[in-house]
Design brief:
Elements (H helix, E strand, L loop, with lengths): L1 E6 L3 H13 L3 E6 L7 H5 L6 H4 L2 H8 L4 E4 L11 H7 L2 E4 L5 E2 L12 E3 H8 L16 E5 L3 H11 L2 H4 L6 H8 L5 E5 L11 H7 L5 E5 L1 H5 L12 H15 L7 E6 L2 E9 L2 E12 L5 E11 L2 E4 L3 E2 L17 E2 L2 E4 L2 E8 L2 H4 L8 H19 L8 H7 L7 H17 L10 H10 L7
Parallel strand pairs: 1-2, 1-4, 2-3, 4-18, 6-14, 7-8, 7-14, 8-10, 9-10
Antiparallel strand pairs: 5-15, 11-12, 12-13, 16-17, 17-18
The protein binds NADP nicotinamide-adenine-dinucleotide phosphate.
The site of NADP nicotinamide-adenine-dinucleotide phosphate has 25 residues, from helix 7 and strand 11.
């Protein structure tokens, strides 16, 4: 049998495992994750009110319950945990599907003022990521600025505008629900540095912003008109054309009286976060203008937008992995059809899939063909890879190294504990939000039994 370790149990890792077992009946797969819980950004990134996308977990579950797939949670690969070199010794092949673990920076003064966070920190908090902290995101805030116009920006804008009645049925942790329910944020400005036809959000996500209860959405027709494609969007690719059409409809709508307001702004690039009373009080933007080549230039005119809360939503970024080559410019591991390249040469037995392979772009489904490409490369290499003599079962070796993984039964125990917590709070499932609760739940029902 070919033994493969997949590092990361998000969509790219699970689709990799799925392709491996579907395309070759002689493959055994261990899917390792740093967290005791599987599903990566499907659990810790998809917004809690996006039930339908979250239900993708049911498809991913089927893969992790496959008889030749084993989930090994709570294993940190790299410094402080299991050395990556050990993994390469224990398996015929290792596929790294670790995503893009950090956020991009703006590199402007005031970026780190209290009250300014990356959208990733905010998302992790309301998604119950055990590494996140309750930083009082919305406390004392009346006006929020979201920098960036991608789908993450849309998610956090929407979550800021949702009321308790809409948040309560979600699986968000109780503390986040209480904070957001008590939020006094009444103005949310989502700001793009380029024009509406260059925004990165997708139309379905954009449309949702227009249908939020008790929330008025406004776009400035003059800002839309600055975009050369606005007058005639017919030549744009389908998504951008539909985005412009939706925005055009909103620009024509009469103003509404509502307790909350979302303002979509364009052609404003952030230049500084301004302090007030020791924390952020406003964001200074420079008005930009199209440069005729898809970019923008500064105009030397500035506008300050009040904000006691700033969420920087300007994209994710991959981080280097112990012992693997890394291209700092793209934040990815150099590869050839998924085979890791060391100094331009294929490194046999090492592969990548997902965001660490192609960068933080695309929707969940984009990971399917990406994983398939990698798996086809791996299976092509398999005849040479299986010649390597392996030691014992990696689970035995892990335990000998003093590492006790959370196995599938442990994860199922976490799921039961989350259902019980929800029931006790009069809600449906409520996520456990800290390491101790997760590990206690996982251990309580015998996750450590021998497999
Ligand atoms: P993204 O789509 O890359 O959007 C990043 C945004 O930040 C862009 O508007 C970009 O503007 C802006 N930006 C970058 N650097 C900036 C700077 N220095 N100053 C001002 N603005 C700056 O990233 P994302 O929103 O984090 O999403 C990541 C991926 O996850 C995407 O593929 C997204 O579709 C996906 N996702 C999907 C869903 C969903 O399907 N519901 C939900 C969440 C995320 P420019 O274009 O001008 O660079």
């Amino acid at each position: 049998m070919l033994r493969v370790a997949v590092v990361g149990s998000g969509p790219s890792g699970v689709y990799t495992a799925q392709n491996l077992v579907q395309l070759d009946s002689g493959v055994l797969v261990d899917v390792l994750d740093r967290l005791p819980c599987p599903y990566g950004l499907v659990r810790y990134g998809v917004a809690p009110d996006h039930e339908k996308i979250k239900s993708l977990q049911n498809n991913l579950r089927t893969v992790l319950e496959h008889e030749r797939v084993r989930f090994l949670g709570g294993i940190q690969v790299g410094p402080g945990g299991l050395p990556a070199a050990r993994l390469r010794e224990w398996y015929h092949a290792v596929v790294y599907c670790v995503g893009a673990a950090t956020d991009r920076h703006l590199g402007i003064p005031g970026e780190d003022l209290p009250g300014s966070w990356s959208a990733t920190q905010f998302v992790s908090w309301y998604s119950a990521h055990p590494d996140s902290a309750d930083d009082g995101f919305v406390r004392d805030a009346r006006s929020a600025v979201v920098i960036g116009v991608g789908n993450v920006a849309v998610d956090v804008t929407r979550m800021l505008a949702r009321g308790p009645a809409e948040l309560s049925p979600t699986d968000m942790p109780q503390a986040a629900l209480s904070s957001l329910a008590a939020s006094r944020v009444s103005a949310i400005h989502m700001v793009g540095r380029r024009g509406p036809s260059q925004a990165r959000f997708t139309t379905k996500e954009l449309r949702e912003l227009g249908g939020l209860p008790d929330t008025e959405l406004a776009v400035d027709p003059a800002e839309l008109a600055m975009d050369p494609a606005y007058a005639d969007p017919s030549a744009l690719p389908a998504v951008q054309r539909r985005n412009v059409e939706v925005l055009r409809g909103w620009a024509q709508a009469p103003p509404e009286d509502a307790p909350r307001h979302i303002r979509l702004r364009f052609f404003l690039r952030p230049v500084e976060l301004l302090a007030e009373g020791g924390r952020v009080g406003a964001v200074r933007f420079e008005r930009t203008a199209p440069d005729g080549q898809g970019g923008v230039t500064g105009t030397g005119r500035y506008e300050d937008i009040e904000a006691q809360l700033v969420l920087r939503s300007v994209g994710y970024r991959g981080v280097p992995l112990e012992g693997l080559p890394f291209d700092a410019a793209s934040g990815t591991v150099p590869h050839l059809a998924g085979r890791v390249l060391r100094a331009g040469v294929v490194a046999p037995g090492e592969y990548v899939a997902g965001w660490i392979k192609r960068g933080p772009t695309g929707v969940i489904g984009t990971n399917r063909p990406c994983a398939k490409e990698t798996v086809l490369s791996l299976l092509e290499d398999a005849p040479a890879l299986v010649r390597k003599e392996l030691l014992e079962d990696p689970l035995t070796l892990l335990r000998r190294a003093g590492i006790e993984p959370v196995q599938w039964a442990g994860w199922q125990a976490i799921e039961r504990a989350e259902a019980a917590l929800g029931a006790s709070l009069g809600r449906s499932v409520v996520k456990l939000a800290d390491w101790e609760s997760l590990l206690t739940a996982a251990r309580a029902t015998g996750s450590q039994q021998a497999s």
